[in-house]
Amino acid sequence: MKLYRESAFTMIELLVVIAIIGILAAILIPAALKGVEMGRRSSCGNNLKGIGAAVLNYANDHRGSLPDGDSLTDVAKELHEGGYLTDLAIWHCLSDKEDSGGAASPAAKIDDFDSDKNCSYLYIAGYSLLATDEIPAQAPLAMDESNKGEKKDSASGLPKLEKDDNHGEDVRNVLFLDGHVQVLKGADAVNGVLETLKDPDKLSVID
Questions:
Q1: How many CB atoms lie under 10 A from the CB of residue 183?
Q2: Do the bridges between strand 140-144 and strand 98-99 make them parallel or antiparallel, or are there none, so unpaired?
């Protein structure tokens, strides 16, 4: 007579399988999260390109003058009302976790737009395409903001990035006056670019 024995995992085999699953998760989950962040970083860069195109179109219709105001709320409303930029989601980076101590999110309509809650970027006001002494390809126009207050009367000395900022403490998307977007690496990298401006005191930072 043949004896049959049901096959089953032993406790050791089960622990080995669990250990393998844990190792794979430890390897794959960070890689997946990094992939998600890379996608969000790319989307953020596209947002800034869209903002740049709207601002330059505005300038073409206003003798080289760019939209201005006391905050990015003013700039967003001016661009929206002129029909230059009506997609409010473009002002929000998917990696932006908080703004002014609260959760950041896109505005539902322009009347509700508040740059303290619905905008992930800062803007450098005061340029004129026809009168500026700055080199457009080297002059920052907008970029990822930090969670610290950055409004000031000069385009210099911005706070260093920290780990809870849009893309962490080492990456910042920057839109330049000629419309191109560049990824700057380093918590303080943008200040190195701002230091090359010929007259930063003619400009102001608004967020």
A1: 15
A2: unpaired
Task: List the end-to-end C-alpha distance of the chain, in Å, as a whole number.
Answer: 84
The model's pLDDT over 41-70, given as tens digits with 9 standing for 90+, comes to 999 999 999 999 999 999 999 999 999 999
Query: How far, in Å, CA of 48 to CA of 13, rounded?
Result: 53
Q: Which residue has the higher pLDDT, 29 or 194?
A: 194
Q: What is the number of domains present in the chain?
A: 1
Asked, for residue 160, whether it belongs to a domain, the answer is yes
**Residue 171 parent element (H or E):** strand 171-176
Residue 5 resides in a domain: no
Please determine, for residue 137, whether its predicted confidence score (pLDDT) is greater than 60: yes
Rg (the chain; Cα; Å): 23
Q: Is residue 185 part of a domain?
A: yes
Buried b (16+ CB within 10 A) or exposed e, 160-169: ebeeebbbee
Expressed as residue numbers, the domain containing 72 is 11-206
- In this predicted model, which residue has the larger pLDDT, 188 or 13? 188
